[in-house]
Amino acid sequence: MFRTKTCGELNINNVGETVTLAGWVQTVRKFGAITFVDLRDRYGITQLLFGEELNKDLEANPLGREFVLQATGKVTERSNKNKNIPTGEIEITLSSFKILNKSEVPPFKIEDDTDGGDDLRMKYRFLDLRRNAVKRNLELRYAVGRSTRNYLHENNFMDIETPFLIKSTPEGARDFVVPSRMNPGEFYALPQSPQTFKQLLMVSGYDRYYQIVKCFRDEDLRADRQPEFTQIDCEMCFVEQEDILSMFEGLVKRIFKDVKGIDYNESVERMSWEEAMWQFGNDKPDIRFGMQLCNLKFPAHTFPTKANIAHLITSDFAVFSEAETVIGIAVPGCSEYTRKQTDELTEWVKRPQIGMKGMVFIKCNADGTYKSSVDKFYNEQQLKAIADAAGAKAGDLVLILAGAEERTRKATSELRLEMGKRLGMRKENEFKLLWVLDFPLFEYAEEDNRWVARHHPFTSPKPSDIDTMIHNNPAIENAAEYLKHPYANIKANAYDMVLNGNEIGGGSIRIFQRELQEKMFEALGMDAEEQQHKFGFLLGAFEYGAPPHGGIAFGFDRLCSILGGSESIRDFIAFPKNNSGRDVMIDAPSTIDAKQFDELQIKLDLK
Amino acid sequence: MFRTKTCGELNINNVGETVTLAGWVQTVRKFGAITFVDLRDRYGITQLLFGEELNKDLEANPLGREFVLQATGKVTERSNKNKNIPTGEIEITLSSFKILNKSEVPPFKIEDDTDGGDDLRMKYRFLDLRRNAVKRNLELRYAVGRSTRNYLHENNFMDIETPFLIKSTPEGARDFVVPSRMNPGEFYALPQSPQTFKQLLMVSGYDRYYQIVKCFRDEDLRADRQPEFTQIDCEMCFVEQEDILSMFEGLVKRIFKDVKGIDYNESVERMSWEEAMWQFGNDKPDIRFGMQLCNLKFPAHTFPTKANIAHLITSDFAVFSEAETVIGIAVPGCSEYTRKQTDELTEWVKRPQIGMKGMVFIKCNADGTYKSSVDKFYNEQQLKAIADAAGAKAGDLVLILAGAEERTRKATSELRLEMGKRLGMRKENEFKLLWVLDFPLFEYAEEDNRWVARHHPFTSPKPSDIDTMIHNNPAIENAAEYLKHPYANIKANAYDMVLNGNEIGGGSIRIFQRELQEKMFEALGMDAEEQQHKFGFLLGAFEYGAPPHGGIAFGFDRLCSILGGSESIRDFIAFPKNNSGRDVMIDAPSTIDAKQFDELQIKLDLK
Lengths: 607, 607
Hints:
Two copies of one chain form a homodimer.
Chain A (H helix, E strand, L loop, with lengths): L17 E14 L2 E8 L2 E7 L1 H9 L7 E10 L12 E12 L16 H6 L1 H4 L3 H23 L3 E2 L17 E3 L7 E3 L5 H9 L4 E9 L11 E10 L3 H20 L8 E4 H8 L13 E2 L14 H4 L4 H4 L3 E7 L7 H12 L9 E5 L5 E3 L7 H10 L7 E7 L1 H18 L10 E5 L4 E4 L4 E4 L12 H6 L22 E6 L2 E8 L4 H10 L4 H14 L7 E7 H8 L30 H7 L1 E3 L3
Parallel strand pairs in A: 3-5, 6-9, 11-17
Antiparallel strand pairs in A: 1-2, 1-4, 2-3, 4-5, 7-8, 9-10, 10-22, 12-13, 13-16, 14-15, 14-16, 17-20, 18-19, 20-21, 21-22
């Protein structure tokens, strides 16, 4: 061992001990004939004192930032104490030191506030990883994993490894494939998730399975997606939806406790997908604050008790009356916004990312009067009725968007989140969990004129919808009228867990009967032959005593980033890839040898 | 929840309780108007009693093997108790039951002694996994993983995930490669191990890293190899070899304790590679028994204190005198072997797998006389001298093989293991650990006329050999004389852990200086350009304060199989592949779509 102690453990109680430390030079400070060096390792920083004698050696062998040093000396009490760090009351008065390795001057500062840009830090990721901020993220990630494993172990889950070289069955996302040298012309695929394997483990009776496992999707990398990512993957036998919800809100609460020291004792809120879409405009609402959306044309959609004001919306004001949907939110305490402020908000919703043509506002003044950008069309009483419908109180500012339903709903949702942020209602250290339930089983892909599974093809419909699913599937003559088809109303036994407006996990009760699974594949446009080719093993397994089962998968990278208070999952991955799927540090992907092509019996076919 | 209790937890203390169980039908036994069913789940088996009333329902809905059943009733004391299982004193007198799913008749028996052949069980692996024997293996695997994680956690190791989509740098084994759609013409490789990444983590100061991680090698699958396999992968900073040995014998002892209940208190034996090769004929000796090899031509190689009997070996007996090497073992207590028995052994060593031309034996009779198959060439006194040199006592049988050094050593090693097995000296429940140390750093590949790294190119030479490594590398004129080159004597700071004759782990202290790493690459025939292309990131990292470090990796599958008392790692993998690298259950690898080829911009090039 090159050390007897780490740089994080010595304090006033160790004074007088002779110790050897090893670590990296963080700073070198000369004071006349003596020198102070801060020595850093994973565990902390300890101050070293080079006295006059050793200082001469230092002059012969000058230390630079990030040099690797071994140093022996006596723990002494400091005169100038630093109360901010655990080792701040002592220093080591050195008797000897040895430079174990030198360092070039790093291309950026190894400090919390670094001067290195993203690209530079990624190229020198091994230096970036030395920064405290990054180290804390990886420590948090380890703690989340450890907490997860402990909780699941205590609840009888078994970690069982599933294979990485599997079969390509692209459904939705693209597979990464791996040419097989031993089976020329054939390919493995890397798993997008261990879905079918964990279901087979349930058929095999393993009862409670988990894995913290890498998954792969060859998708174009929008912001903050990675081609390889990690899932906490779980499955249980003989359960109903309620059992899964209770087991896994338990998991997340345990993680809160172990990792953040938070007692999350309240019960986790629940909301149907329908409610989430109408009240918050998206399926992963941030419920740290209210400001719900009000569908002013059909307020019953959102606040069943509110008065119907549809007549006001279908009045002379064409912007409202001609719009498919009119949605308002009541922003608390903003009635005194200036013209400049409301103009700025109008510009904000007109940006291409939001895409609205304009915005209407109503100021609900503290004195009980109302002032609006559409005073020409509505009198004060009418404005009050609209503001009331939107749930506004005196002092609030009602913001109203109008247009096509889907876009308007999405835009109002974005506006709500923006206002929540501006008003400090999305607090970094507040954590609010939510279950979103009762998702539709299917979505309709109008361009392909077929149903697609909203979650995945293994998700079970609600028991009450099974009959419809099996017996009521008339052909669709006109794709545009798919909403009239019985399948449009089938609800799934599926659930998403949402944390602060981010989907952190999702799952479902699975289909476990061959007939129903075949119906599902059929609904997705897969004929019997394709079913057999892709999923014959699963259909076969369902004939040999498949138990009722269900599960969930959490996005591990995302969960860590939210707990760590960051927007970016990359900050929580030791060696992430960039938006082109490249690891710029090792320079991968890269070309391969002619011999490799030859052995794999493939060649390039570049366009 | 479909159950209130599992099938493994009820006993005499639960009598009188009303419970609901869910599981699989193991057996159905009719006795007149009543029926007994053994219901099985992961946790155990519980007997269900269908009384006369329910029996009628059973007749309408007959149960078959592996049906999935939910059953409610009262826990009752059995009249006919089964003391062999924890639930054997009770049964459930049912009040109701429900068939949750039916099952076809399984293609083989779901029992410890199954009638299913290997191929059939692999095709229906989801049924094979239901067998107790397989389930116990996976439970053991989980326990080994859990124990490993706990020990490493307590010792400050952090689990840090390294990437799976990396760069192809084939050295020795072939890489599996993955075409990159986003970077046409380029490929990722799947990691053969996280070697360079864990070293970078040390450069980054993470101090103690571990991972239980999948690795990939595209090699022809000899018996009991898998294209994907799992490693316990570890690395430490600021350590010397001794620190690693002590940390990781601690790990294995902890696993023995947690998983097998074994207190392995003795210290782990150590042996140099040289000793292992001469005394046991291979680098992973089974030291549960002695029977060491004696090099009769140069007995000093093995037993330094033994008399030199080389003159007897270089005598008139051509089989000995003309052989490069003559090696004997003393098999205890076998002096009374019959002619038939010694003939059979002679045939055994002549089989092609062993490849010897014959075998000489000397019986050291209990009465002090000697009898041999070469009585014509040696008198009794000479036979005694040879037998003494081989370490034989009265009652032993000395077996001697002669021929080319490498083959003879290997053959004698095989013979030793075979005799150890026949004599019951390789006890299944005895575990003996051994460190093999001081491996040569290089091997010479005569056909390619170049050095190859015996362990891997990142392994450090012994400190005393570093100077030779850097400054003493003359060109080799004649490949056959490579042994005279200074590099042939360089020893590595490398170590293997051996358990009962199997290598379960191996590692080394790493090179951490750029200059030495370049020398190593150079020795392996890599020019500066190739070094930069393949390992530029690592050489670069060594310039920014790389600390001394080292590590080890354990073969997780192999470790589990030995602890589980099995020869085959497949028995300890949930979904293994066969010898052609196929998963016959899901039928992978398989063909992919034209669209996939198109997007990846590759095509087949079948010979």
